[in-house]
Amino acid sequence: MAGSAGGRVRWAVVGTGGISRRTVRDLIASGDADVVAVASRTQETADAFAAEFGLAAAFGSLADLCASDAVDAVYIGTPHSTHFAYAKTALEAGKHVLCEKPLTMTADEAIELGEIARRHDVFLMEAMWMKFGPGVQRSLELIASGVIGEPRFLQAGLGYPVPEDGPPRFWDAALGGGALYDMGVYTVALAQLLFGTPTSITAGGAMRPDGVDLHESYQLEFASGASAQLVTSITFLVPPRGWIGGTRGSITLDEPLFSPRSIRVTTGRPPAPPEVETIEFPPEDVGYLPMFRAVNAAILAGEREHPTHPLSATVDVLRTLEQIRSLLASAPSTKG
Ligand SMILES: NC(=O)c1ccc[n+]([C@@H]2O[C@H](COP(=O)([O-])OP(=O)(O)OC[C@H]3O[C@@H](n4cnc5c(N)ncnc54)[C@H](OP(=O)(O)O)[C@@H]3O)[C@@H](O)[C@H]2O)c1
């Protein structure tokens, strides 16, 4: 079982692509942690990444990393479809796992990872950084304080025309490509954070014959009467924003939805003019620090999940994504 050396978590990064390069500095700066290693599919790439970011060890395979007892925890930053196998390997080696979103491509796979983590007594979490950021945390506090009354509605979207020579994770069906699992995982996670598990789902959009979804809009209904209207796309621009409507006011989550730089709280009942308070959150590095700090603290405290984003929430979101995907597949359109 992974421990921690001298009250610090010894991390390794898995994968040397886009997200690992963006987040590794935040992980290094997260306190109570040392990033001690990287694993890549090739030794040369691992060596180059380790040299660039000053990491002590470089492994040419995940298996080699897992054999090292100098590593307590791994951050997996590889394409979606690889997450299950990589996380399983690491958990079975007794490493704590923080894995990029979506944790897996199916809810059943996430449940299986949870069972493996429990068996090996290690921490497991999907890197849903949006939930840990100050914009979403402050919004939850404001909602709990009753400022906007009862929250009843969420509208949120994320999308941009991804160039065809852009990141393969968007376009390659074998890597889990498409808008829904990459971007929809945020919109659905936000809706379900606010309202729980949906009782009904409708969806429309476009999916290529190989299963890569190009865009979709979907509506979730909840037992409380709340609803969420969500849209994601890799072929057209959807401003990365959202707003939560309540019985006495609303909260607008400004760009970018997964790490809002500001929120706007609007209160007042028409015909009186609305009162708008803007709350700003100065960017703190890439924005991963709150999540990394929280995960470090949880691991050092011996926790096996984090209450802000437990595995049950990941599984619930994956179930919704599966349903949306099957609705898109049953009414296919290829119009991007
Ligand atoms: N939270 C966020 O803001 C955010 C942003 C972007 C991406 N992500 C998530 O991060 C994950 C990776 O995205 P990315 O943009 O970093 O992807 P990427 O650059 O295309 O790939 C990441 C790395 O994964 C490794 N890899 C392992 N198996 C692979 C395989 N079968 N095919 C291709 N690469 C493989 C490669 O590193 P080696 O060559 O070293 O093995 C590659 O460079 C995705 O799941 C995505 O959802 C999150």
Strand order, main sheet: write it out: 8-9-10-7-11-12-13-14
Low-confidence stretches: none
List how many beta strands DSSP finds.
Answer: 14
Q: Rg from C-alpha positions?
A: 20 Å
What global shape is seen?
globular
Q: Quick check: average pLDDT?
A: 95
N-to-C series of helices and strands: EHEHEHEHEHEHEHHEEEEEEEHH
Distinct bound molecules: NADP nicotinamide-adenine-dinucleotide phosphate
Strand content: 15-25%
CATH superfamily of the largest domain: Dihydrodipicolinate Reductase, domain 2
Distance from N terminus to C terminus (CA atoms, Å) equals: 47 Å
Query: What number of domains?
Result: 2
Q: Architecture of the largest domain, CATH level 2?
A: 2-Layer Sandwich
Helix content: 25-40%
CATH class of the largest domain: Alpha Beta
Q: Remind me, CATH topology of the largest domain?
A: Dihydrodipicolinate Reductase, domain 2
Helix/sheet category: alpha/beta
Number of helices: 10
How would a crystallographer describe the biggest sheet?
8 strands, mixed
